[in-house]
Design brief:
4-stranded antiparallel β-sheet
């Protein structure tokens, strides 16, 4: 992390460099505004995902948003109480040779990636058990949500995971 600029009691701008799980650069800004009952803190982040993760943009906004909320609550505790009720211990890097993934290796053109991904997911969970979300495109059609399934879809996915675990145990 590198401080780019600082205005006392007003703002702080930083640059963050990440190397895992993919290389990226992020600009983070904190804006402070004095209020009658305390200080309002606004926290912003500017970055982009690698092109091949375009389909994760909405999910990443949710995940990062949860981290923002957690971070702001920790900052609030630190300012108001002088400490936080959170303890993070880094125990170093560890290699794990027992990790298994459910995945499909597929090659396709970008123009038909949606069709191919749909077919791959249907190999595990039939599409009538998938979740749907609001549209992120101009045509307002509901979109398949690969990250969330209806109840029966979760059961099917769990059964596939159990098969993998049974193979590991054998």
């Amino acid at each position: 992390m590198r401080v780019l600029s600082e205005t006392k009691n007003k703002s702080l701008s930083c640059s963050l460099n990440f190397y895992k799980p993919w290389k990226s650069k992020v600009e983070v800004d904190f804006y402070l505004e004095e209020k009658s009952d305390g200080t309002k803190v606004a926290w912003t982040m500017k970055s982009s995902l690698p092109w091949f993760l375009f389909w994760m943009k909405k999910s990443m906004e949710v995940y990062v948003g949860m981290d923002y909320e957690r971070g702001l609550l920790l900052l609030k505790d630190l300012v108001e109480q002088g400490n936080t009720l959170c303890d993070l211990k880094f125990e170093g890097y560890k290699n794990s040779n027992k990790t298994k993934y459910i995945g499909f290796e597929t090659r396709c053109k970008m123009s038909n990636i949606e069709q191919i991904m749909t077919e791959d997911f249907e190999n595990v969970v039939p599409n009538n058990f998938w979740g749907y979300k609001g549209s992120t495109s101009l045509n307002d059609d509901p979109e398949i949500d690969f990250m969330h399934f209806q109840e029966e879809g979760h059961k099917i996915l769990a059964a596939e995971i159990i098969k993998i675990l049974e193979d590991i145990i054998k």
